[in-house]
Amino acid sequence: MAAPGPVTPGAPFEPSQPPVIEGFSPSIYSTQESFKEKFLRKTRENPMVPIGCLGTAAALTYGLYCFHRGQSHRSQLMMRTRIAAQGFTVAAVLLGLAASAMKSRS
User: Fold this and answer.
1) How far apart (Å, rounded) are the C-alpha atoms in residues 67 and 73?
2) Which of 22, 52, 65, 78 could form a Cys-Cys staple with 89, CB 3.0–4.6 A?
3) Alpha helices in 13-47 (DSSP H)
4) Phi first, then psi: what are they for 7, rounded to 5°?
5) What is the pLDDT of residues 61-78, one digit of tens each?
6) pTM of the model
7) Where are the domains of the chain?
8) 60 contacts: CB under 8 Å, gap ≥ 6
9) 86-99 pLDDT, tens per residue?
10) How far apart are CA 74 and CA 13, in angstroms?
11) CA distance 60 to 81
């Protein structure tokens, strides 16, 4: 069995840069987006997801507040509301994915 030949390294690996793959463009956008720009673009594409996230956070916060104050009935109601808001958010994400898939096909 022959020993493998020496491996000559190509360009040095740079961890701060994405890998270069021939024929693959990592972004369809010509310039890099900042976090704020990307957040605003995604919110415009599917505005129901941030609304669902805010509703979930509000129900959780108020439910914990009621639990702390000893209002167990209201706290239980808010935890159930939180579950409904989470379901709404998941449904919004799935519908947004389906809409973008349908849009990319046409």
Assistant:
1) 9
2) 52
3) 35-45
4) -95, 125
5) 999 999 999 999 999 999
6) 0.63
7) 79-105
8) 78, 79, 82
9) 999 999 999 988 88
10) 56
11) 8
